[in-house]
Amino acid sequence: MRTRVLFLTTALAAGLLAAAPAAVAAPLGLGGDFNGDGHRDLAFAAPYATFSGQGMAGYTAVAYGTSAGISTAKYTVVHQNSTGVPGSAEAEDTFGAAFAIADFNGDGYADLAAGAPGEDVGSDGDGGSVTIVWGSATGLNGGTTVKDPAPTAHDEFGRELAAGDFDGDGRADLAVGTSSSYAYVIRGGFTKAGVIGGVQKVGLPDKAKYGIDAIGAGEINADKRSDLVITYRTTTPEGKDWSKGVAYLGSSTAKGVDAASPRPLDGGTSIAVGDINGDGYGEIALGNTFDKSDEHSGSLGGKVVVIRGSQGGPVNGDVPMARLTQSSPGVPGGDEQGDGFGGSVSIADTNGDGYGELAIGVVFEDIGATEDTGSVVVMRGSAAGVSTTGALNLTQSTSGVPGTAEDMDYFGSDVHLSDVTKDGRADLTVTAGFENEGTGAVWTLRSGTVGVSTTGAKSFGPSAVRMPTTYGAFGANLSN
After folding, report:
1. Partners of 283 in the β-ladder
2. With a cut of 70, which residues of the chain have pLDDT below it?
3. Which residues partner with 233 through β-bridges?
4. Residue-wise over 209-221: b if at least 16 C-beta within 10 A, else e?
5. What integer pLDDT is reported at residue 480 of this predicted model?
6. 422 CB-near residues (< 8 Å, 6+ apart)
7. What integer pLDDT is reported at residue 237 of this predicted model?
8. Cα–Cα dist 220/222, whole Å
9. How many CA atoms lie within 13 A of 71 on its CB side?
């Protein structure tokens, strides 16, 4: 999922191509390897950046992975004025506001689907668009528009994206969120000429008052078909907002997901799917940053609900695997009004023990006298689920983490766990979308036998990819 509802709302309120060596195609299924060198790469966006004089046109960049971690020595910047990319950079397009990554055309290279929910499509203001930017031996290069199947039925096509094989046919599909109560699964196989395998309309059990808040995908029931998770807000009989979530299990037929049998879940503004307890089934982590004054099911400083996966799908009920706030045992920090705990979430194994760690962005955490500085909490996984011991708390005041904790940095705007170095341990990427008065920055931290480490941690901003160091929320969105 990857745009964070609370972060975007607050933020709005308040092609250069580096040479890359030739490489053989990556094995199918190696997500995030755009140039086929065997290392996962990192995509991030500056959706509010001015480009070609157009405010909030946005751009997307990729830094390529190496055995030493993410490196900006090789990078690609993609925007709607890039050669071979459809469209043109226009004001308030917010290109890169959502991402999904998969090998959409089956050539062995990962491709990047980028949403531009503010794109005007003809006379349809804010109709939104989705572009697949294609991977190759030299990295991302050229793109193809994913056609909106119902442009008059909604706005903001591409506000949320998730990739997976929802029908089990071995081809990557793309789930697309909109401003309405419907999502669309665009089925593979995709081609550079714009061919797709079909479209499935996926309706929600209730009317979505503000459209779809988040989309995620992953293996919940281990049947080799991706499952789809969607969150949204509806209205209670008393007129209050209520955040809800639903899971749709992948279908054994060509229709995509079993949209007729939604599984009710807790709601939220961020989603991650991954195996925390090592049983082969994916857990669902739902971060909900709303407090009760904004949303009926909210909490004081934000919460994360972890729902167990099983052969039968998500096990929700009254007792999820974990219901976490900063007042929960083992969770660093204090539960305070407006902390934004759960503004971003990611799950992967950081120490190679077979259990997935849970990284949580606390985007508006105060650090000492600084306000809305932000922090990241990493909770350890275990056979029993999320562990109450050994949690890691990271801020820009943590030893080894570059930078200085300042007001309104929003450190933890997004978090991403992914094995970049090919050592079997997921590394951590953190963004601070408003670092340096809205410019934004990205931090990379490698993992070792004890998990995420600050040793050798690095950070970079727009200048590392030769883009202006001006307002743009660089890193507001990471690859998922």
Report:
1. 274
2. 1-31, 318, 480
3. 243
4. eebbbbbbbbbbb
5. 59
6. 38, 39, 67
7. 84
8. 6
9. 12
pLDDT value of residue 18: 28
pTM: 0.93
Nearest residue to 44 via CA among 6, 74, 2, 102: 2
- Alpha carbon separation from 476 to 31, 55, 77, 479 (Å, rounded): 20, 16, 15, 10
Write down the pLDDT at residue 30: 46
DSSP string, 50-93: -BTTBTT--EEEEEEEETTEEEEEEEEEE-TTSTT-SS---TT-
Which uninterrupted H or E stretch holds 7? helix 5-13
Contact by Cβ (8 Å): 45, 476: yes
Contact 191, 244 (CB under 8 A): no
CA-wise closest residue to 248 among 224, 236, 234, 264? 264
Structure confidence at residue 240 (pLDDT): 87
Closest CA to 476 of 428, 440, 429, 436: 440
Which residue's entry shows tokens 């037929």? 253
- Beta 392-394 vs 375-379: how paired, if at all? antiparallel
Is the backbone peptide bond immediately before 189 cis, with ω within 30 degrees of 0? Answer: yes
pLDDT tens by residue, 409-421: 999 999 999 999 9
348 contacts 419 by C-beta, under 8 angstroms: yes
Q: What is the b/e burial string over 29-48, where b = at least 16 CB atoms within 10 angstroms of the residue's CB?
A: ebbbbbbbbebbbbbbbbbb
Q: Give SS3 for 343.
A: strand
Q: CB-side exposure of 409: number of CA atoms within 13 Å?
A: 27
SS3 state at 6 = helix
N-to-C CA span, the chain: 7
Q: Give 86's strand partners.
A: none
Question: How far apart, in whole angstroms, are the C-alpha atoms of residue 98 and residue 114?
Answer: 6
Contact 304, 266 (CB under 8 A): no
* Residue 319: per-residue pLDDT: 77
pLDDT given for residue 293 in this prediction: 82
